[in-house]
Amino acid sequence: MSKFLIRPIPLCQGVRDKSQFTYHRGTNERVVIVCYVWYLQGTEPKVMVDTGTTADWYHTDGVPEQEHIQFLEDGLDKFGVRPEDIDIVILTHLHADHVEQARKFTKARFIVQQDELEAAKHPVMESAYRQRLLDGLNYMVVKGDNEIIEGVRVLFTPGHTPGTQSVAVDTPGGVAIISGFCSIKENFGIEGDLSTISAPGVYTNLLEAYDSIIKVKQAADIVIPLHDPKFVNMNVIP
């Protein structure tokens, strides 16, 4: 069985109200939230998760407190790759902070859930998605749980958005799952105590979002919350 390393690449960070991530919990408590991309080292073809964005994009979108960590190209260069070397990008969902730099990946196929692509085109979702970022990408559309390559799978985990998908990676330390929904470690609660789980504070279906957290917890040996600051100084998972 193929086993890979996950390389977290933090791009920018900012402070948010915790309740934006933990449904009705932590109001007025400030937490650091990090925007990452994830390089799956050792895969062939070469695989990334998300394309990320920059602090400058947040600034133009009305979030002035976002701070720059590093540019995408500099983060990838540490592992000997460039955006144009990547063959597959798995998009956890189509919010701008996860897809804004997609056009830098000039030869990549973009793995997206059918439900997510359809939702992004719906008029009611206009304020949640930036259609100009999505048009014309080389999509490979999937539905539900799917194996992408041996050792890398997507899990359908809707709720944060209609077509959110998480990414399960076989690693030397077990199955690591990058949660596709915007989350921090507190979303997953205390082991064995379901009452401590918090659904995402931003959601399209709260009950689905809760069920998706359970699905990831049950399937993972290593849970990777998508925006948790824990990984900023972590060079490799596991």
Low-confidence stretches: none
> Between the first and last Cα atoms, what is the distance in angstroms?
17 Å
- Provide the gyration radius in Å: 16 Å
Quick one: CATH superfamily? Ribonuclease Z/Hydroxyacylglutathione hydrolase-like
Q: In which order are the strands of the major sheet placed?
A: 4-1-2-3-5-6-7
Helix content: 10-25%
Give the amount of beta strand, in percent.
Answer: 25-35%
Structural class: alpha/beta
CATH top level is Alpha Beta
CATH fold description: Metallo-beta-lactamase, Chain A
CATH architecture: 4-Layer Sandwich
Q: Tell me about the biggest sheet?
A: 7 strands, mixed
Number of strands: 12
Q: Could you give the order of the helices and strands?
A: EEEHEHEHEHHEEEEEHE
What is the overall silhouette?
globular
> What value does the average pLDDT take?
96
* Tally of domains: 1
State the helix count: 6
Structural description of this entry:
This protein has 238 residues and is α/β, with parallel strands linked by helices. The protein has a single domain (5-231), classed as 4-Layer Sandwich (Metallo-beta-lactamase, Chain A), CATH 3.60.15.10. It has helices at residues 55-60, 72-77, 96-99, 114-120, 131-134, 206-219, and strands at residues 5-17, 30-41, 47-49, 67-68, 88-90, 109-113, 139-142, 146-149, 152-156, 165-171, 174-178, 222-224. The strands form two sheets. The protein has a seven-stranded mixed β-sheet. The radius of gyration is 16 Å and the shape is globular. The model has no long low-confidence stretch (mean pLDDT 96).
